[in-house]
Amino acid sequence: MDFEPSEDQRLLVESVTRMLGDTYSFAQRKGYMALPGGYSPDMWSKFAELGLLGLPFAEEYGGFGGGPQEVMLVMQAFGRVLVLEPYLPTVVLCGTAINAAGTAAQKQELLTAIAEGSLKMAFAHGERQARYDLNDVVTTAKKNASGWVLDGSKTVVSHGEAADKIIVSARTSGDRHDEDGITLFIVDAKATGLARRGYQSRDDSRAADIALSNVSVPADAVLGEVGKGFPIIKKVVEAGIAATAAETVGAMEAMNEMTLEYSKTRVQFGNPIGSYQVVQHRMADMFMTQEQGRSMAMLATIALENEDEAERTRDIAMAKVGIGQAGRYVSQSAVQMHGGIGMTEEYAVGHYFRRCLVIERLWGDPAYYLNKLAEDVG
Amino acid sequence: MDLRFTPEELAFRQEVRAFIQENLPADIRDHMKLGHPPRKEDTVRWQRILNQKGWAAYSWPKEWGGPGWTAIQRMIFLEENLSAPAPELLSFNITMLGPVLIQFGTEEQKKRFLPRLANLDDWFCQGFSEPGAGSDLASLKTAAKLEGDHYVVNGSKIWTSTAHNADWCFLLVRTDPNARKRQEGISFLLVDMKTPGITVRPIISIDNSHHLNEVFFDDVKVPLNMRVHQENKGWDVAKFLLGNERTGIARLGKSKERVRSAVAMAHQVNMHGRPLIEDQTFRQRVAQLQVDIKALEITQFRVVSAYDKAKGAGKPDPLSSVLKVKGTELLQGTSELAMDVAGPMSTPIWAQELAAMNEPDDMLEASSAATASYLMLRAASIYGGTNEIQKNILTKAVLGL
User: Fold this and answer.
1) Average of per-residue pLDDT values in chain A
2) Domains of chain A, earliest start first
3) CB–CB of A2/B1 below 8 Å?
4) Residues 330-389 of B with CB under 8 A from A
5) From CA B211, how far away is CA B207, in angstroms rounded?
6) What DSSP character marks residue A173?
7) Residue A298 with chain B: CB contacts under 8 Å
8) CA distance linking residue A335 with residue A341, whole number of Å
9) Residue of B44, B43, B59 whose CA lies nearest to B96
C-alpha cells in the first residue's frame, strides 16, 4: 500500500496546477462562463496540448496511458478552480464507455479525436421519469433495414449543447425497468430529428434536454452489444462517481483555504474571527471532513480497478455517500463562516457550494446510495 | 501510488487471523463476544500467549523483542486482535512505557523492565492527570523532592485506569516548582505500587464498573534510579509518549465488532412484529456507520503508510487527531447502536438475574453488556486528549492559527 504519488504523477499535477494558475483565476473563469458554450474553447485546446484529453486512453489512440489515479489527480486540480470545460462528459464518461465497449474502429476514430481536441461528447442517459434509477429507460430504438430509429427524450445532459457526438441510451427490448434490453448508440449531434434545448445549471455550467424524434442511425452506431448497455452504463457511472469525488476534494480544499484566509482577515469585536475557538473548531471539523472525503475519493479510485463486482459496487456506493455528505458539510460550513459575503454571487465560495450541490445529485445522492447499502445489511 | 494491500500484507492478515483463532482461549472469546470488557486475568493470559509468539511487543524494534513489523502490519494485527474479539494488549506497557524506555531509559531500566512489560509480569498504570490538571496536563502539582538517593513524592493523581490492578505506575511529578515555564520543572518516575504511602481509592464510573481510581502519594520514596531521562525533562518524555505512533487510536476493530454484534442481535428482536433487521431505518443507520468506518479505515491506511514511508516517526501527523476524533465518535456511535437494539432489555443491570439462572441467556447478557459498553465509551472522547483538545491541536498544526 502506498499513497504517495509517483514522480510522473507529481509532474502531471504540477503541470496542470501551473497551467490553471495562469488561466483559471476566478475573474478569468467568469469570462469563460460568458462565452457562448459556457466554457473556453482555448482552454480545451490547452488541455489537448497538455495531453489531458487523452489522459486515460492507450497510447495507440494518442492517449497518455493513464488510469483512474491520474484522472483522480487531474479532477482534484480541476475541482480547486471549478473548471467549466466538458471534460467529465467527454473524457471520463464517454471515454470510459468507448474504452469499455467500443470496437477497434470506434476506439480509433473517437478516442483519437477526443485526445487531439477535435471531438467533444456528451452522455445522454437520464430521463425525466427515472430520477436516479439507472435502469429506468423509456427512450426507444427500433431496428429498420439500414440501422436503428431512436425516439424519446433525455434530460440534464451535461454539456449536451457543446457535444459533437452524443452517446444515447435507448430501450431495444424489455420493459421500462429492465436492465436487459438497453442499448447505447453513438449519435451525431446534427442528426436529423435530434433537437437540443440548452439551459444554465446551478453550477455555472451548461446542460441540455435532448429530444429524439425519428432519429435514424446506422447499424455501426451501436456501442457494445445490442441489449447489453446496462453494464456499460454502470461502468460509466462508476468512473463518473470516482472522478467527481476527486473534484469534490479539490473544491473542499479550495473552500477550506478560502475560509481560513477569510478568518484571518475578517475582524469582528476587535479580533480576527479566526481567533475565536468556536470558529476554529468549525474549521477543524471542516478539515477533518475534507480528509475523510479524500479517503472516500481514494476508495472510489481504488474500486474502479477491482474486478470483484460486488465489492466494487459496494465501495463505490460507500464513496458516493461519504463524499456527498462531506461536500455538503464543507460547503455549508464555508458559506456560514463567511457570513453575508458568502451569500453573494460575486464571491467565489458560493460557486463552489453550487458545484458540490450539483455533483451530489449526479447519478444518485447520499440517501439513494445509503438505501442501496442498507439492502446488504444483515 | 498503489492503493491496494500487497499479497504479502494479505497473507499476513491471514496468518494473524489464523493464529488468533487457534490460540485465543474459548472462554475469553465467549465472554468478550457478549460485549464484556476483558477481566484482568484474560488480559494477562492473552498477552502472555502473544508474547510467546513474539507478538506482544508488536511496536518495538527487534532488538528489544519486537517482531519488526511495518506500520501497516501493526495496524492489521491490532485490527484482527480487536475484531476477534480478543483482549487488547495493555497499552500502558506496550504502546506507552515500552517505547519511552527504549528511547530514554538507562540500560539497567531497559533490561529490567522491557521483558517484564512484554510478558505483563509488571502491570503498569499511568499517573498523569490530577484533580486540577486534566486536559491542561502541564499544570500538575504532585511534587517530588530529591533527598539523597531517592525522591519523596507527595500529591495525588486521578482517573488512573487499572491502578487497583497495577504493580507499577509511571508518574509525572514536579521536581522544580520555580521553573520559568510550567513544562520545565517536570520529571518522569517509575513507582512500585507496593511502596508505603500509596493509597488507591476506587472511582466507580457510570457504567457501574471499577476501572478508574484516585491515587494518593504520601511521602512515597522513589529511588533515584527509577527516574527516566534527566531531572526536569519529564515533559519531553510525556510529549514523546503522547505523540508516539497513534495508529491504534481509532480502534476501528472495536467499532466493527460492535456493529456486527448489533446486527446479530437485530435478527433476534422485533419491531412492529417483524425482525428489527428488516426495518429500513435501522438498516440505514447501520449502513451509515459502515460508510463512516470505511472512510476512517482509508484515512488510517494513509497515516500508517506515510509512517512507513518516512521510516518512522517524524513530526506527529495531524491526521492522528482525525483518527482520534472520528475513531471515538465511531466507538460511541456503534456502541449506541448495540444498546438501542436491545431496547428495554438494555436498561436493567441483569447481573443478579443472570447469576441466578440455570441456563445462560446470551441475549440478556449481551443487552446488559451493550449498555455498559455504551456508558464506558462516553469516556473515549474525553481521555487521551479530549476531542476538543484534538480540535485545538488541528487548529494549530493544520490551520496555523
Assistant:
1) 97
2) 7-119 (1.10.540.10), 122-228 (2.40.110.10), 231-377 (1.20.140.10)
3) yes
4) 388
5) 10
6) S
7) 3, 298, 302
8) 8
9) B59
Residue positions of B annotated with a catalytic role = 245
Which residues, in sequence order, are CB contacts of A271 under 8 Å at separation 6+? Answer: none
- At A128, the pLDDT band (50, 70, 90 cuts) reads very high
State residue B313's pLDDT score: 55
Helix boundaries (H) for A5-61: 7-23, 26-33, 41-49
Q: Which residues contact B60 (CB under 8 A, 6 or more apart)?
A: B66, B94, B98, B99, B102, B114, B118
Predicted-complex ipTM score: 0.92
Strand, coil or helix: what is A347?
coil
Q: Which residue is listed with cell 492503493?
A: B3
Model confidence at A159: pLDDT above 90: yes
State whether A318 and B291 contact (CB < 8 Å).
yes
CA–CA distance, A220 with A38 (Å, rounded to integer): 32
Indicate the pLDDT class of residue A268, thresholds 50, 70 and 90: very high
Q: Which of A257, A266, A288, A305 is the best residue to mutate to test the B interface, defined by the most B CB atoms within 10 Å of its own CB?
A: A288
List chain A residues with CB under 8 Å of B280: 371, 374
- Residue A84: Cβ within 10 Å count: 23
pLDDT for A291-326, tens place per residue?
999 999 999 999 999 999 999 999 999 999 999 999
Q: How far is A346 from chain B (nearest CA, A)?
A: 26
- Residue A254: CB atoms within 10 A of its CB come to 21
User: Residue A156 region, left (φ>0) first, then alpha (ψ -120 to 50), else beta?
Assistant: left
Q: What is the pLDDT of residue B320?
A: 87
Short-list B123, B131, B138, CA closest to B156: B131
Helices within B35-106 (DSSP H only): 40-53, 71-83, 91, 98-104
Tell me the count of A-B CB pairs closer than 8 A.
134
pLDDT at B135: 79
User: Under an 8 A CB cutoff, do A5 and B1 touch?
Assistant: yes
Q: Note whether A118 and A165 are within 8 A (CB).
A: no
The share of chain B scoring above pLDDT 90, in percent, equals 80
